[in-house]
Amino acid sequence: MNSITIMPWLRRRSRQLLAAIATLGLIETTHLTIAKFRGVPLACPTNGCDRVLNSPYADLFGVPLSLLGVMAYTTILVLAIAPLVASHYRAQQWQRLVEITWQLLFVSTTGMAVFSSYMMYVMAWKVQALCLYCLGSAILAMSLFTITLLGNRWEHWRRLCLFGSSIALIVLFSSLAVHADVERADVERVAQAQLSSANTLTLEPQGEPTLGVGWEVKALSGTAELQLARHLKQIGAKEYSAWWCPHCHIQKELFGKNAYTELPNVECDSAGKNAQPAVCDMAKIEGFPTWDIKGQRLIGPQSLQTLAKASDYRGLQNFSNKIPQ
User: Fold this and answer.
1) Burial class (CB in 10 A: 0-12, 13-18, 19+), 62
2) Fold (CATH) for 198-325
3) Residue range 3-182, CATH number
4) Among residues 112, 105, 113, which one has the least CA distance to residue 77?
5) Residue 239 in contact with residue 268, Cβ under 8 Å?
6) Tens digits of per-residue pLDDT, 124-155?
């Protein structure tokens, strides 16, 4: 059987084929959606199915992609059989229905084929696991696109190619934009893990302090620490400290090296860098560190949660360091 005999047969049976393939896709994605909502593992010959389907890439704005697949296959099924069940329409109306459904089928199957191809890239290069369900769905999507393309007598192929290219670009760039947030979240999670790992150190100072400066601050600063430090500076809070004070060093480590430079610190020892002993004498400072926040005095190193509460700070509070118990 050559292509000359295949094409007429395909055009006669194209809608039946589309309906059959869409039904298979609908059954598969319904099964995946039920398993997703019930939280049950999938029967899969590879160990990558659950890994792929539970990855951050498997949801779109909190909606499982399998559920969107149910909607997509249902749409294809309805568009494919609509003219078949509307044979009672008048000839002109029926022909118009055929034309409209073919156009919508082209849009739908093109979008599904492009998105499925993109998800195959994600599966292989981002998640790095094999999901046979996802691979099967991609094959079904490509089959739907191929049958739609060959199963109808398209009159303007150049216009169709231009239209299809536009759909492909829209779907591709939309997918990249949505998943950029996923990748950004992954980067932030890794950074937070690295930050927590870097900050699992003893806050007590080690060795001798550098004259006039104190001990080196080793802890890193996260976004929450930076925001709190800037908030304290903005509201006019002050921290009175001395370069040789180990408790003051603990306070520095709690903020981290970057955030601490943002603090409104007053050095009380005359040998310290940018010392202001007269300001400390006027404030009648009796111990280090001493915090002056909205008229309230807190003596000793304070947890960042305590400083946030005392200063009415409302920003991020996922602080990395804590005062050892």
Assistant:
1) exposed
2) Glutaredoxin (3.40.30)
3) 1.20.1440.130
4) 105
5) no
6) 888 888 889 999 999 999 999 999 999 898 88
